[in-house]
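Researcher: Structure prediction, please.
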Amino acid sequence: MWLEGPPRRGTDTTARITRRRGGSAANVAAFAALSGAPSRFIGRIGDDALGERLAAELAATGADVRVQRSGRTGTVVVLVEAGGERTMLPDRAACTRLAGVPSAWLEGVRVLHLPAYSLAVEPLAATALELAAVARAAGALLSVDASSVAVLETYGLGAFRALIERVRPDVLLANAEERFAPDLLERPLGVPALVKDGPRPVVIVDPSGAATTVDVPPLPAVADTTGAGDAFAAGFLPAFGTGKLPRAAAEEGIRLASRVLAERGR
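Model: Predicted structure follows.
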């Protein structure tokens, strides 16, 4: 929903409300498919009409949708301020119960992308790590997105850092607020990392901690930041998965994110 002003406690705040499919992993799959890259979504939705509609909308983007169905479909309320910044209120419901995923669902996958949302709650986290092991054994690359300041704080910054050092993804994606302490540049994780910072340059940190930057072209206006990080991943990962260097792949991510930032509810 797009608010016409700050929320007024105890009374009304005029807003424009739309309903659409979403979720971090689903956004990445959809944006990748819409840009012409093959993508697949693996997840769990409720056994309800809402879940059916959302799965159909995702499939309509061209993504290959593989889902389990049980319980109640999750919902995220997104509040978008006048300047485009968004605040999210998630009720994840059935998606956290993903378990027992057939290994065949990973056939042909070149890059497995795991948002931190998928690593912070059980049994979804155990399932995500099992899929990561299967994908790695098949020669796929592994990407992790830090996803959310709130998720990292709840999980524990030190615990998440230890998880990354153990799993050792081929790339870690984060935004500047998610550069969990201690700073990546001061104590590198031993894996490549990309740090996005809104209109400021993307910082590429190599496993040793050495950093380079990629400029972000200015936009005349930002309509909505919702999904911009997912769009960056959707542009970056197909390029990275086909062997492009992080800088060239980051430029693909920036291009796709810029398109999303310019439109409301993309």
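Model: The mean pLDDT is 87.
Researcher: Thanks, that helps.
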